[in-house]
Design goal:
The complex is a heterodimer of chains A (114) and B (114).
Chain A (H helix, E strand, L loop, with lengths): L3 E4 L2 E4 L5 E7 L5 E8 L3 E10 L2 E4 L6 E3 L9 E3 L8 E8 L9 E2 L3 E5 L1
Parallel strand pairs in A: 2-11
Antiparallel strand pairs in A: 1-3, 3-8, 4-5, 4-9, 5-6, 7-8, 9-10, 9-11
Chain B lengths: L3 E2 L4 E5 L4 E3 L2 E2 L6 E8 L6 E7 L7 E2 L2 E6 L4 E6 L8 E9 L6 E2 L3 E6 L1
Parallel strand pairs in B: 2-12
Antiparallel strand pairs in B: 1-4, 3-9, 5-6, 5-10, 7-8, 8-9, 10-11, 10-12
Classes of the chains: A mainly beta (114), B mainly beta (114).
């Protein structure tokens, strides 16, 4: 199994550009989420989804959009990139069948906005 | 208010010594789960251990154990006989009630000295 796959691994954007960070999982997990990691801030939840067609906001949703059309994919869109969105982004998924299941993470996307 | 507090930004420990990483949490829900993750310098997120609020015993996984003190709302990670490979960032995280999302603390960077 590939687990959680994020693309791209690295990206440089100019301020105002848009882009989509891709996330796909092959574990049939209903729950998927996006985090950003900044120095000294830990991982902060951006958006999450508990199934196809269902999304909700996390701690820091502003400037980001998500959609969930399939169980496997959960893309994160930056409509107009800002330098404050320079960060490492992680996608994660988990089973919902048990409260004890951990989240599985992708390898991360390092995004720089100049 | 922070849901997860990790008060030690950084720690230096001699190899082979035991390490305790602190984590306190804030929730009014009687049902919750606590997770610890390790992030080595390569960047991936590695799940270490889980403790449920109703678990009768403290969780253990190999050299990792969780010192769960419910009344104090603390869930400290204990690493026995530390190794150089334990040098990493460690994150404490929580999931509350029926909520699927997992919220992380800011992390503790652990340095193991030879």
């Amino acid at each position: 199994n590939a687990g959680v796959t994020q693309t791209p691994k690295f990206q440089v954007l100019k301020t105002g550009q848009s882009m989509t960070l891709q996330c796909a999982q092959d574990m049939n997990h209903e729950y998927m989420s996006w985090y950003r990691q900044d120095p000294g801030m830990g991982l902060r939840l951006i958006h999450y989804s508990v199934g196809a067609g269902i999304t909700d906001q996390g701690e820091v949703p502003n400037g980001y959009n998500v959609s969930r059309s399939t169980t496997e994919d959960f893309p994160l869109r930056l409509l107009s990139a800002a330098p404050s969105q320079t960060s490492v982004y992680f996608c994660a998924s988990r089973e919902r069948t048990s409260s004890r299941t951990e989240a599985f993470f992708g390898q991360g996307t390092r995004l720089t906005v100049v | 208010a922070q849901k997860i507090t990790q008060t030690q930004p950084g720690m230096f420990v001699q190899e082979k010594e035991a390490v305790t990483l602190d984590c306190t949490y804030d929730t009014s829900d009687p049902s919750y789960g606590l997770f610890w993750y390790k992030q080595p310098s390569s960047g991936e997120m590695i799940f270490l251990i889980y403790q449920g609020s109703y678990d009768q015993q403290n969780a253990t996984e190999g050299r990792y154990s969780l010192n769960f003190q419910k009344a104090r709302k603390s869930a400290n990670l204990v690493i026995s006989a530390s190794q150089l490979g334990d040098s990493a960032m460690y994150f404490c995280a929580m999931r509350e009630g029926w909520d699927d999302k997992i919220i992380f603390g800011k992390g503790t960077r652990l340095h193991i000295l030879p």
